[in-house]
Write a structure and sequence with these properties.
Blueprint: E1 32-35, E2 38-41, H1 47-57, H2 65-73, H3 79-84
Antiparallel strand pairs: 1-2
Helix pairs in contact: 1-2
């Protein structure tokens, strides 16, 4: 199972595989919600979208901590990689 698959440039000799399952388009893994009970970022959420969601959430009362999380996540990779890779 893969989602993002950004490691192929680093780990070139992985495999061979009998099956290759891309889970990028599984909607349940891309859930994003900000509710009074908490913040939910699905495991298939791209890092760039997670950063954007955290920044917006940080403006809401009780979610101020999200600004620190988004700032930290901006240190991960470059924009292109953050657009295709996931935070999990």
């Amino acid at each position: 199972m893969i989602a993002g698959n950004t490691s192929t440039g680093i780990f070139k000799n992985e495999g061979p595989f009998d099956a290759f399952l891309d889970i990028n388009d599984v909607p349940e893994l891309r859930v994003l919600s900000v509710e009074s009970g908490g913040l939910v970022l699905g495991g298939g959420t791209p890092i760039s979208l997670a950063i954007e969601t955290l920044m917006k959430a940080s403006e809401l009362r009780g979610f101020e901590y999200a600004a620190v999380m988004s700032k930290h996540m901006k240190r991960v990779a470059n924009v292109h990689i953050r657009n295709v890779s996931h935070y999990t």
